Hints:
Radius of gyration: 20 Å
Oligomer: single chain
Order of helices and strands: HHHHHHEHEEEH
CATH topology of the largest domain: Peroxidase, domain 1
CATH class of the largest domain: Mainly Alpha
Low-confidence stretches: none
Amino acid sequence: MSEPASISTGIAARYATAMFELASEAKALPALEADVDAIDAALAASEDLRDLINSPIYSRDEMANAIGGVADAMGVDVMTANTLRLMAAKRRLFVVPALVAELRTRIADHKGEVTADVTSAKALTKTQMDALTKSLKAQVGKTVKLKATVDESIIGGLVVKVGSKMIDTSLRSKLNALQNTMKEVG
């Protein structure tokens, strides 16, 4: 892991630990989960917000006021809003994406869930998603939340990632394996 990435991860982990423990003590984990979803959606939707958290040109006060306004507009919990303001004051907003990921992991662990990233050549039907969820639950022994994406370049089949495990049944990988085998033979 690169040094800046490990620094960001360490900072995000410390903030996530504090937020998770405070929310857990206050029995406000559902509110924290809703806040994480809202922040993640805002980051995905707003290029201006991504620029704000990553730009060094704004002063601490400007960042704190801006992120505070965004937090208030989103209606996040007071603890979440105050944490974001504190992060702005400490010039730590650049770790917000890592913070969101870390909080998602902690909340999922607390709920006994695991997220599976599923990539398919075309969108999966509800029946297919249910069957895949049931199969994965039997394999991992936890409730599985699917995060489905479509990538037509895999041609067919699925690529499933659960934690550090990956199952690649895509036609693209099978064709690549066949191509490598043919190169070895001839």
